[in-house]
Write a structure and sequence with these properties.
The protein has helices spanning 49-61, 145-150, 233-239, 324-336, 379-382, 413-416; strands at 7-11, 67-68, 71-74, 82-89, 94-101, 107-110, 138-139, 163-167, 173-190, 193-210, 222-225, 246-251, 258-262, 264-267, 271-274, 283-284, 286-291, 294-295, 311-313, 320-322, 343-346, 350-354, 365-369, 374-377, 383-387, 390-393, 395-397, 409-411, 419-424, 429-434, 440-444, 451-455, 481-485. It is mostly beta strands. Strands 4-5-11-6-10-9 form a 6-stranded mixed barrel. The chain has a 5-stranded mixed sheet with strand order 16-19-28-20-27. The structure holds 2-acetamido-2-deoxy-beta-D-glucopyranose (5 copies). Belongs to the peptidase A1 family.
Length: 486
């Protein structure tokens, strides 16, 4: 099947990570039976209690652990504008730098022998994943339950390799086939101490990336979907009882990197708001926006029109996208405090101005959510500097529309950085609090009940591109339902 001859429609209700079954891909590993469960103690006549106990202790030590994911990157559109984490894949384990995306549901990495993918990045050294070089890699076929629950297509025959296509909100896409292999992660074993742990994960081997994902500039090895659907990285580990479906990030925009941990955060405490149950994304109900002390007068359905209610919290998006009916009054109110500014537009979507005074002369913008949770976005977060005397607003007008023409509100890294953001999928709440992301947080080890400190990381990246790349990387990575019309 020639993908170029397909037509794609974007919509915002994620029915499934669009998986597409096409020609067979050759894969080194043989097809494996689904869910091979075999008890090590089945059929044993005498109960060897010692062995059972040892087995349980071993099992317990690997249950519901807290994981520390080393983080790098920043949220400055004029720098790299994305956050990435380091994970190990395969046997022997190799390191991969993957963008952290709470707006999508699948992990994928650039595949060895790919048709179209970045070869060299200005940011990190790229490592294509090579299933042939990993002794634990296995192919995932159409009869695998993982493939079938994300794929309703009739062409998916038993025995064929399960292929996937994911399209993101910025129009870029990845396409390839699914692989099952071992993932190696840093288990929190003490205060700022980690050991290693592993799990089995199904992920995409991306053989053809398009749009921004196919470009070399500032490329990373792939994207790690941290959404709440069953196919996401965290859901897969949780289904193996490796972790709880709860995680937190603290994206540091002052020095880069920050904290990304899986597990229950006990300190700092965060106030939470319910996740909207019908949404595939992490969506929450927004009630009002304040500019300084003034509440914006908005129509009641400004950010709650149609089926896709609420605002989306998405670490894979750099900026904040607002419907026009919200964007205009917000900008008018901010600019009312600075009538002297003369505005110009840069790259069609950025409102910029000359300014040499202090940033705190601009008002703080506060979003008000259910259960009186608020999110303050300070001028140093919503303004970014493109030249010594020139600043631009990070607020974006519209940007994404659903098929029904509804405009989405997306809170990206610009609003989420310098805060600890906690996603508790089990209890269906999300919350945050202002936090120093170069500092530390405390997580609970579920088995022992011990409380351990997890500190910030700042994975190094090459910053040589910072100035020349000016504004080119404004990613909007949220996946959308891909309805395929043949
Ligand atoms: C996974 O971790 C277990 C326990 O630490 C270890 O015995 C096993 O060898 C590891 N598996 C791989 C593939 O690294
Ligand atoms: C997701 O996983 C849960 C628990 O394993 C299961 O109950 C549920 O049916 C799954 N959902 C889908 C859509 O497969
Ligand atoms: C990030 O921090 C830098 C320096 O503190 C600031 O100039 C920039 O505006 C911030 N950007 C965002 C998107 O938060
Ligand atoms: C944040 O924490 C780091 C590391 O503990 C510290 O060096 C820095 O001064 C703190 N920043 C603020 C603003 O408190
Ligand atoms: C974080 O890493 C980046 C890239 O390697 C570097 O430019 C920056 O100075 C680092 N920040 C700190 C606080 O070390």
């Amino acid at each position: 099947m020639d993908l170029k001859r397909r037509q794609w429609f974007l919509s915002v209700i994620l029915l499934s990570a669009a998986l597409l079954i096409g020609p067979q891909f050759s894969s080194a590993a043989a097809t494996t039976p689904v869910f091979e469960v075999r008890s090590k103690f089945a059929g044993k006549r005498e109960k060897d209690l010692g062995a059972l106990k040892a087995h349980d202790v071993h099992r317990h030590s690997r249950l519901l652990s807290a994981i520390d994911l080393p983080l790098g990157g920043d949220s400055q559109p004029e720098s790299i504008g994305l956050y990435f984490a380091k994970i190990g894949l395969g046997t022997p384990s190799r390191d991969f730098h993957v963008q952290v995306d709470t707006g999508s549901d699948i992990l994928w990495v650039n595949c060895a022998g790919c048709i179209r993918c970045p070869r060299k990045s200005d940011l990190v050294e790229l490592t294509p994943y090579d299933a042939d070089a990993s002794s634990t890699a296995k192919s995932v076929s159409c009869d695998d339950s993982f493939c079938s629950y994300v794929n309703q297509r009739s062409e998916c025959h038993a025995g064929s390799t399960c292929q996937y296509v994911i399209m993101y909100g910025d129009g870029s896409s990845t396409n390839g086939y699914l692989v099952r292999d071992v993932v190696h992660l840093d288990l929190v074993t003490g205060n700022r101490q980690t050991g290693s742990t592993n799990g089995t994960i199904i992920f995409g081997c991306g053989s053809k990336q398009s749009g921004q994902l196919g470009e070399s500039q500032a490329a990373v090895d792939g994207i790690m979907g941290f959404g709440q659907s069953n196919s996401s990285f965290i859901s897969q580990l949780a289904s193996q009882r490796k972790v709880k479906r709860s995680f937190a990030h603290c994206l540091d925009n002052n020095s880069g990197g920050g904290i990304f941990a899986i597990g229950e955060v006990v300190s700092p405490k965060v106030k939470t708001t319910p996740m909207l149950s019908k949404s595939a994304h992490y969506s929450v109900n927004l009630n009002a926006i304040e500019v300084g002390n003034l509440v914006l007068q908005l129509s009641s359905d400004a950010f709650n029109s149609g089926d896709d209610k609420g605002v989306i919290v998405d670490s894979g998006t750099t900026l904040v996208y607002l419907p026009e009916a919200v964007y205009k009054p917000l900008m008018n109110e901010i600019l009312a405090s600075h009538p002297e500014l003369s505005l110009h537009t840069v790259q069609d979507s950025f409102t910029c101005f000359h300014y040499i005074d202090k940033l705190d002369r601009f008002p703080t913008v506060t979003f008000q959510f259910d259960k009186s949770l608020s999110l303050a976005v300070y001028p140093r977060e919503y303004l970014f500097q493109v030249r010594e005397d020139t600043w631009c607003f990070g607020w974006q007008n519209g940007g994404l529309q659903t098929k029904g023409g509804e405009e989405l509100t997306i809170l990206g890294d610009m609003a989420l950085s310098n805060k600890l953001v906690v996603y508790d999928i089990e209890n269906q709440v999300i919350g945050w609090t202002n936090h120093n992301c170069s500092g530390e947080i405390q997580v609970k080890d579920e088995e022992s009940g011990a409380i351990y400190t997890v500190g910030a990381h700042n994975l190094s990246w090459s910053s040589s591109l910072a100035i020349t790349r000016l504004l080119t990387l404004v990613s909007l990575l949220i996946p959308f339902l891909c309805n395929m019309a043949l």
